[in-house]
Design brief:
The protein has 47 residues and is mostly helical. Helix content is 19%, strand content 0%.
């Protein structure tokens, strides 16, 4: 499968993840579902 436009992103550039698909893109199934995960490290408290 060959793509016309190769997707390119810069390291640390996360603005594209926040952009919502418009109605036309959703209607044509031209969008990607994004799930963001974050790791919250917490030290255990001494008992």
């Amino acid at each position: 499968m060959k793509y016309k436009n190769k997707p390119v992103t810069a390291p640390g550039d996360k603005d594209y993840l926040k952009k919502e698909a418009n109605k036309k893109e959703k209607k044509n199934d031209n969008y990607t579902r994004v799930t963001r995960l974050s790791y919250d490290e917490v030290d255990a408290s001494p008992d």
